[in-house]
Amino acid sequence: MNGVHDMGGMQGLGRIVAEANEPVFHARWEGRVLGLTLASAAWGRWNLDKSRHARESVPGAEYLCMSYYEIWFAGLIKLLVDGGLVTRDELASGQSEAPKQKPPLTADRVEAVLASGAPTQRTAAAAPRFSAGARIRARNIHPTGHTRLPRYARGKLGTITRHHGAHVFPDAHAQGLGEKPQHLYQVRFEASELWNDAQRNAVHIDLWEDYLEPA
Fold it and tell me: Which residues of 183-203 are buried (b: 16+ CB within 10 A; e: fewer)?
């Protein structure tokens, strides 16, 4: 989707200034939001790509006024309501109307669950269309749902530098259409191709096969 979250290459948003000795969380509530998000996901009512899409769906005017974890919190509320775990009335009152349920992720299991991660590599039905060294063009598409194809790379020429194997396709996964695994590639784009900039820089982006076409 062409949402305000897709800020790569946009002007007018100010410089990104690195914070010296930046803490993991700037306030305790930020850690709690992350913890709530991870724990709630254990219910299995949504997947990683759907959770990303929930954060991307925050209205633009609100999104630009929010901090990073405020956006996460807004996305979590949407997931909880859409997933049938809470109601808007319960959120407003702070009181649950349903009997308490046993949490699917208890404190003693957190470390092991986080360490195991959630691998996305799968087996694809077809052979890869591209190989390292191939020249490609990122398709100029504008899907209405979640996508991992950044807007600034659409329509641009690049070179395949690596094949990562087949992985869950996020565009389908976020919409509940199944994993539909397809081949994933690392693609090198020259800065001069992306932004008409003569600097000797390049950007490497991991892109799924549906995002690419032969140059």
Answer: bbbbbebbeeebbeeeeeeeb
